[in-house]
Amino acid sequence: MSEAQSVPPSKAEPAAVQERGFLVSSAPHLADRATTSRIMFEVVLAMVPLLAAGIYFFRFAAVALTVLCVAGCLAAEAVANRMRGWSQASLRDGSAVVTGMILAFSLPASMASGSRFYMAFMGGVVAIALGKAVFGGLGNNLFNPAMVGRAFLMICFPAAMAAWIPTAPMMPEAKATLAAEKGVSVDALGREDVDAITTATPLYQAAKLSEYVAKAESEPEKQDVFRAQAQKIRDAMPGLWRLAIGNVGGCVGETSALIALICGLWLVVRGVADWRSPAALLAVVVVFAGLAHWINPGRFPGPLYHLTSGALMFGAFFIATDYVGAPLTASGRLIFGAGVGLLVMLIRTFGAYPEGVMFAILIMNALTPLIERATHPKPFGGQLQT
Amino acid sequence: MIQVLRDRLKGLKVFSRGIHPPHRKKYSESLPIRAYIPKGELMIPMVQHIGAPCEPVVKAREEVVFGQKIADVGAPVSAPIHATVSGKIGVGTVCLLPSGRRVPALPLKPAESEALPANVLEDFLDRDWDGVDPAGYDPEAIVQTVREAGVVGQGGATFPTHFKLRRNPKTPIDTVILNGCECEPYLTADHRLMVEAPEPIVIGLQLAVRACGAERGIIAIEENKPDAIEAMRKAIAGRPELDVVVCATQYPMGGERQLIAAVLGREVPSAPLGLPLHVRVVVVNVATAHSIARGVVKGKPFTHRVVSVTGGGVVEPGNWLVPVGTMFSELIAACGGVKPDVVKVLAGGPMMGPTVPHLDVPVTKGVGGITIMTEAETAHWQESPCMRCGRCVSNCPLYLSTTKIAHAVMHRDYELAEKYHMSACCECGCCSYVCPAGIPLAQYIRAGKNQVRMIAAQKKAQDKKAG
């Protein structure tokens, strides 16, 4: 009874409208159909092909990581809402799902195996808890929550975060190699043996190549050894097509640059993502990699290798376009994208890590307020000159 | 984005940014203007323009005749008010304006017989203007008659027109743009007027060009009014200094700054100091031009205006020639009343029009339409946190950091809001329209501007007291 009484008056009361007058509200009285949850849904939709590619290359691991990360994010969001005394409405806006998916896509498939499953969940929890909730929820966070979660995992579980397993299509060859090394038949390999198979990511190969070439130049007495090693890596490096479709070692959702590019362009066409950040990012990468390759082609791979390897394409369209951590202004977004591109290439070329998208994003996130202030737009027409 | 490209390819005039809301002009765009003869009491507000309020020049219970001046004031930015019907003035009172302000007003009871001449509609839409030579009018005299006729901008801002038309050697004018965009969804009053009475509009434009010493006049019409474009093209034939340009159907094309940018490519300095005259332009609404012509050539004061009563919530939409001061309730009753599922009644269009709480509100000089919206037509917002998507910023036609201003206002930091150029905002509402988080940005900014105005007024009063 009391429930029925507390229900607000129904909207469909024609007579009442006339009696009580009309609704008073501030203009405008029209709105377009975009809502936060609709935008998030489109982002999720755009990531589904990437998930499909992840499932193709890493089978169950892609699903398991996605589920674990999204669950971790939603759980943390729910707890944070509870602690703040907020309603759980933010669970439905989809932003936690997007964060969880981006985090999952940037983890190695090996994390889904047996004893490590809790890591992904923890990553999800930390992403939302430390990346978003502590700042006051959606829209208030300084850093990209998914990248915060990933950074946390990288610090806590460095070994797990660097254990790259071969993709499903690469597996038979990898098994055969291992069997040959052990001197047994492929069928005789134990489960532990197979689980322990790792592979090098294209960027790790690029880093090693650079290292050997540099060593060969600085230590002439051992030149031949290093040269041979460099050549060995060069031979093992994947071709462009393999890189583009993503049949290489790497994170579950990031390896396929081609699919990331197509899905990212779709987001741009739909007006969900701004073209500026990815365009500036990719342009800087092409220029930087092109210059390096032109200076020393034996040591530095070309722009296409960089564009198609690692998290670059995924990062350009799905992480660098994240609204919250990037500047609001048009020119600010260009600077943000260019900054990410430059930092990625600096880390890849000179840093201790083979891949730098995560750090680049986090650093640029920190610079966002400054960039925004510096690129504050002049109002139309400017001030009147008297 | 695709819409803008298409418009550019078609060679239409566009401005950068802005939005493309649904047109919804179908309700009334093909309905001819009809005359409305009021039966009940009219309410004539003493504030129907921006500037100094008028003072009555007639006494209570005085009989007045149609067109007689009933209120005026000496201030330069002002316009007199005339009796819009013949009848008897009541005792001065206070009435609610569509904007929500309460202002002094004079009730006017229409006479039993002959409150309005029988030919009021024919006279208003009279198309026989041959033989009128605008060059024969003295610029000073034009400005003076326009003031005496009580003409104010009918696009909504209600700025006294004569003040815009005065010549000033320091700010020469080269172009007068006639604003026939009517970019607000639903509204069709200007559209119908251009179709049904293009000749007086053209005369009005020529008079305006002459008054302010401009070289040319441009009539700007949005692409979604092909019949109006055709009618105006025909009407300007043989007048080389006039031109019709077709603008994209883009909101807010009818805003002065956007229109001047689209038509001439000139950028008016930002509000509140910048004005079109700083780029040598005067913008006049088509209905205002019509009133100028009637006032100057025929000596008819501004008593009537075209009002479209439209929207999904009105039984019989229509375009009406209405005496200023007619109550909304009467006019809407003449349209068959409202449907049961009506939620909002707007004075104006849905992008900028204020809502009225009830229908005891008079039509003023600035009301070009009454939009009656049903539950299904109006947007329903559920405010959620800003996720900094930047849509409000990238769609703001004045290049403002809208969300920053709104958040500064939320935190009552008006200084910060002003740093983000809050006072340059024209309140067009594009930001609220596009916001996916449902934040009423335009409302916050409007509130912030009011606050700043209030604080300034208080400070002024205190200073007066102290000094």
3D structure, described in words:
The complex is a heterodimer of chains A (386) and B (467). Chain A folds into 3 domains: 36-162, no CATH class; 166-198, no CATH class; 202-249 and 256-372, no CATH class. Helices cover 63% and strands 0% of the residues of chain A. Chain A has 19 helices and no strands. Chain A has 386 residues and is mostly helical. Chain A is globular and about 90 Å long. With 467 residues, chain B is an alpha/beta fold. Chain B has 3 domains: 2-30 and 122-298, NADH-ubiquinone oxidoreductase 51kDa subunit (Rossmann fold), CATH 3.40.50; 35-112; 391-466. Chain B is 30% helix and 18% strand. Chain B is built from 15 helices and 17 strands. In chain B, the strands form 4 sheets. In chain B, strands 1-15-14-17-16 form a 5-stranded mixed β-sheet, with helices on both faces. In chain B, strands 2, 4, 7, 8 and 9 form a 5-stranded antiparallel β-sheet that branches. In chain B, strands 12-11-10-13 form a 4-stranded parallel β-sheet, with helices on both faces. At the A-B interface, helix 2 and helix 3 of A face strand 16, helix 11, helix 14 and helix 15 of B.
